[in-house]
């Protein structure tokens, strides 16, 4: 057999790490600048096991008729003053505002805050875990953790930080409306990652991710795809009761009630 | 001002490198499996300075009416027995075959060979620089280095390896039809990379790239976006004369004649 050399370099490659920055926000800004048009800008997400996934950033701009049913179900239950944690490009915030809610968006990404503001959302920069530094007790009737933002609960250890703060800034009877992916429905590829997590004493769906955009990468962050059962267990001690859920394929939405 | 913590991890992240493998071929296989449908699968290319770019892999399947004019111009000049170096998904090979040429595709990617074969192209696995191990002297009348595959010339030092082998496997009067991007038309982002290359004694457009797909990455490889002038200079000593060129924006196509 002929030995076939591959494409190669002549010298050892010392690849440079990307710059740390708001890769997520820059992705949204580029997608907005594209129209926003479908298939114009990709969101690139890297996992700490070397996995990389690119998907159409236009999904952050899709309107309710394009959403999965559990997401429409969740947004339809918004009432009164809504805090949209991880507002992104504002797709859920805009739908709730159109239904008469008074919506405030929150995002750690400067670019996301800018994009959602340009689209008419009142948005501020900040992390959900520090919402109590921005808003007084009882400020909201509804909290969104949509667009898979239930995963911002980060880990079983840290979930209480966010859930506790959300209890502090909401009024009696408030609800959290959120969605996620159930890790039980993972692919073969995820199975290896789940197994590694179990070996490290972590829940299977605790992903370590970063967003990349051109020469930028966000810092690595924890993103926990918890099951409805895991969610129920971490929420109860912090005053949130799992009241209802909807499922479509691997996606599920929940309503948690402040108790 | 409130100090805002970002999303983060609780532990230092020791990210694992992707597995080395045929990321490019797996991208094409996934795109083919999608239909091929537009906007279904992204091609992810990483540069050694941390830059990452995702674009629609469907472009590898586009038919001539969607090509830029210089590419149509190049393919229209194919004559006789054609060697398509870096055949990819076979878009140029199929157009030349439809015009009556006898086309052989060559690609270092197993997946590319499989995809182009499934689409009806006679394709073999191998590097252009080793075409002489697969094909006898005078086997071809035309060589394609399309889809920016002039960049497979890799570097001024190595360009002669490929050009010399292509001279060996072609008949008198043969032509190379190729296209590339002119580095003179680079963006501000590329300017910093160009400057780094100049500092290292390289031509500005010599990129070090790898393809990524899910958990796979190709090895890093040299990919040289040479100017028409640089091309002319490296081709002449190896018996290829730059005979004609067409330009559209940053893209240019050339015809080199075997002399």
UniProtKB/TrEMBL annotation, chains A, B:
| Protein keywords | Methyltransferase, S-adenosyl-L-methionine, Transferase
Q: Does the keyword Transferase apply?
A: yes
* UniProt domain Methyltransferase: residue ranges: 82-173
Q: Is the keyword Transferase in the record?
A: yes
One Pfam family it belongs to:
Methyltransf_25
Q: Which InterPro entries match?
A: Methyltransf_25 (IPR041698), SAM-dependent_MTases_sf (IPR029063)
**Which PANTHER family is this protein grouped with?**
METHYLTRANSFERASE (PTHR43464), UBIQUINONE BIOSYNTHESIS O-METHYLTRANSFERASE, MITOCHONDRIAL (PTHR43464:SF19)
Protein name from the UniProt record: Methyltransferase domain-containing protein
